[in-house]
Design goal:
- This protein has a seven-stranded parallel beta sheet, sandwiched between helices.
- By secondary structure, the chain is of the alpha/beta class.
- The longest helix has 29 residues.
- The protein folds into two domains: 210 residues, NAD(P)-binding Rossmann-like Domain (Rossmann fold, 3-Layer(aba) Sandwich), CATH 3.40.50; 36 residues, no CATH class.
- It is built from eight helices and seven strands.
- Helix 4 packs parallel to helix 5.
- The structure holds NADP nicotinamide-adenine-dinucleotide phosphate.
C-alpha cells in the first residue's frame, strides 16, 4: 500500500510539539508541503528544521506563530499557508489542551475557553479551507479528538464535551462535502506520549524517571496494551487517511487508543 502525499499542502494546527509535530514529520516524509502552527516561535523554528530534514529537501515547510483562540490569527494562518505553500489540501485540527473540573465548580469562562479553542478553532479553520477544496474536488480534514468524545467519563468536562461536539462537526461536514471528495474523519486519542505528559512529569516530584512515569501511568490507568502509544503510531493513521490510500473513508471517528475506549 502506498501512502504518499506528493505535492499536497497540509496545514496542521498545534504542530510544534507532540502529535502535531509527529504528523508534520510523517507527512513531509510522504512528500507533502507542510505548514506548522503553534504559539511559541522558538519551538516552531526548531521543529521547522526537523521537518525540512524529514522532507529530504523535496518539500516546502512554513511555520506560523498563531493562537487558535484568536479568529484573526486563524485567518492569518490560512493566508500564510496558502501564500507560502499553495492552496490547502489537508487540514488537521489538532491544537488543544485538556481542561477538567468538577461540574459544580466549573465556571462559564472555563467552558467557553475550552469550546472556543477546540470547537470554534476547528469551525473557523474549516470554513476558510473548504471552499478551495470544493473547487479542486479534493480535500482531507481530520479533527483530533479524545476517547471522551464517545464515552464521557464522570468529571470529564469540559474537554470531553468539546470533543463530542468536534465529532458531531466531523460527521456533519463528512456528509455535506462527500460529493466534493472532501473526506472528514476524527481520530480519538487515548494516552499517547507527548509534551503534555512530559509537562506533567516535570510538575511531579520527579522521584521516577520520565520513562518510569509513563510505565506507571500505563499501570494505574489500566491501559490494555500495558503501555502508552507513541506519537508516530498516531501519525501513521493520520497519514493513511490523508493519502490517496484513504480515499473511501469519511465520517469515521477512529479510536487510536490501544483498546482503552469502552466503546467502538
Ligand atoms: N497526548 C495525549 O495523550 C492526548 C490525549 C487526548 C487528547 N489529546 C489531544 O491531542 C492534541 C495534541 O496533543 P499533544 O499531546 O500532542 O499536546 P502537546 O504535546 O502539548 O503539543 C501541543 C501543541 O499545540 C500547540 N498549541 C497549544 N495550544 C495552542 C493554541 N492555543 N494555538 C496554537 N497552538 C497551540 C503547542 O505549542 P504552543 O504551546 O507553543 O502553542 C504544541 O505545539 C490536543 O488537541 C490534545 O488535547 C492528546
Amino acid at each position: 500500500m502506498d501512502c504518499r502525499m506528493d505535492g499536497r499542502v497540509a496545514l496542521i494546527t498545534g504542530s510544534s510539539r507532540g502529535l502535531g509535530r509527529a504528523m508534520a514529520l510523517k507527512f513531509a516524509d510522504a512528500g507533502a508541503h507542510v505548514c506548522i502552527v503553534g504559539r511559541r516561535e522558538n519551538l516552531l523554528k526548531e521543529t521547522k528544521g526537523e521537518i525540512e530534514k524529514a522532507g529530504k529537501g523535496k518539500v516546502k515547510v512554513a511555520a506560523v506563530s498563531a493562537d487558535m483562540w484568536q479568529p484573526a490569527d486563524i485567518e492569518r494562518m490560512v493566508k500564510t499557508a496558502e501564500k507560502e505553500l499553495g492552496p490547502v489540501d489537508i487540514l488537521i485540527n489538532n491544537a488543544g489542551s485538556s481542561q477538567r473540573g468538577d461540574f459544580l465548580t466549573l465556571t462559564d469562562e472555563a467552558w467557553t475557553s475550552d469550546i472556543e479553542l477546540k470547537l470554534f478553532g476547528a469551525i473557523r479553520a474549516c470554513r476558510l479551507v473548504i471552499p478551495g477544496m470544493q473547487k479542486r474536488k479534493w480535500g482531507r480534514i481530520i479533527n483530533v479528538l479524545n476517547t471522551g468524545a464517545k464515552a464521557t467519563p464522570g468529571g470529564g468536562y469540559p474537554t470531553a464535551v468539546s470533543r463530542a461536539a468536534g465529532m458531531s462537526l466531523m460527521k456533519g461536514l463528512a456528509g455535506e462535502f462527500a460529493k466534493d471528495n472532501i473526506l472528514v474523519n476524527g481520530l480519538l486519542v487515548g494516552r499517547i506520549e507527548s509534551d503534555q505528559w512530559l509537562r506533567r512529569w516535570e510538575a511531579s516530584n520527579k522521584e521516577k524517571t520520565y520513562d518510569e512515569f509513563l510505565v506507571d501511568m500505563a499501570k494505574t490507568q489500566k491501559l490494555p496494551m500495558g503501555r502508552v502509544g507513541t506519537a508516530e503510531e498516531f501519525a501513521n493513521m493520520a497519514c493513511f487517511l490523508c493519502s490517496d490510500a484513504g480515499s473511501y473513508i469519511t465520517g469515521c471517528a477512529i479510536n487510536v487508543d490501544g483498546g482503552l475506549s469502552p466503546v467502538v
